[in-house]
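> Could you send the HEAT repeat-containing protein prediction when you get a chance?

Sure thing. Input:
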Amino acid sequence: MRDLFDVLQQIIPYPFWARYIAPYQSWFEAQPPFIRFALIVIVIATVAILCMYALLSITRLRYQWKQHRENKFRQKAEALIIEHVMLHPDIDISPPEQVALPDAVFREELGLRRRWQKQVLIDVMMYYHKNFAGKTAQVIRRLYIQLRLDKLSYRKLRSWRWNKKIEGLHELSEMQLQVPEVTMLELTTSRNRVLRMEAQAAYIRLSKNEPFKFFDHLHGRLLPWEQLFLFEVITHTPGLNIPSFSRWLHYAENTDLKLFCLKLIVHFNQFNAIPAVMKLLEHPNAQVRAAAIDALGQLEAVDAEDQLVQLYVDQPVECQVAILRALGHIRSGRYLHFLKEEFLRSQDYAVRKEAARAIIDHGDENLIESLLQHAPEERRRTLEHCLDPLIKS
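Output:
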């Protein structure tokens, strides 16, 4: 214990030691060992807690100071954009490329020498670019380039941090600036799922000629929520060059990609893809077959009706239900007798219910009335259930 006090005496300044510690040294040495150990633990814990509170206080004060600093800078940047862009006298009468932008004023007023200043200005400009259209958005884009803020966004793409790469993609995508195709394709195959999704979305928005080229390099799962995200991007990107998605039904080995392309074929009503979809009826994966059957039904592919009925017997329940649903969409009337037989014969409730729906979709009132009067009680209740407009399931 004497050695411990010698070490502390060398570390702690002498005035503090002489006044606060030395008077208690003899008392401390007279205590039993376990008491001395407990006192040491208490002192260490107290010092650690005080240091932690000090660190938290410093961190919080620093955060508040940064927020205050950025808020003041943001207000100043917004005022300059409103004055020199929104209220520019030439913005309504001149083409966007001829509007004189006082970028020197922005540099003088805002400084833009520090990285955080540039980032706050980028955030402000992205907000206004996203919420305004036409000439105003184009002028903001020009100002973004003239202030060389695009250099910072491009630099983020080379960062080792995936969230910084996503920031760069968001900024360049919002400002509609081109990114080297090699860089984009590399990011679309990233192991990080979030970065991969954002890169795919940016590729669709930014690529002018082949916005779906990354489909050729897609490996691994394309989960349902990823498909939903890409679907939203594809359907809400104006002026997008939509290809025939049947090409990936032929060549892609990725099952999830095939399922996604089937959804896109239906959404964009690509009737020329019907032959390629029909080839998937022989696919070994039942999920793909069921999705192809649903697609044929929603495209109302009358030519596929005979093949669907021929395949019916050998299919699992999932595909049988899809075939009945497809017949209800096509509504040619040639297989009403088949639907009636399945409705009366099948012991599977899902099959029976889908057959009833298909019969209702055909709109044959005489057949529906006959079934309501002569069908067995259980079948009749199923048909009444499907006829009820308040029940959607």
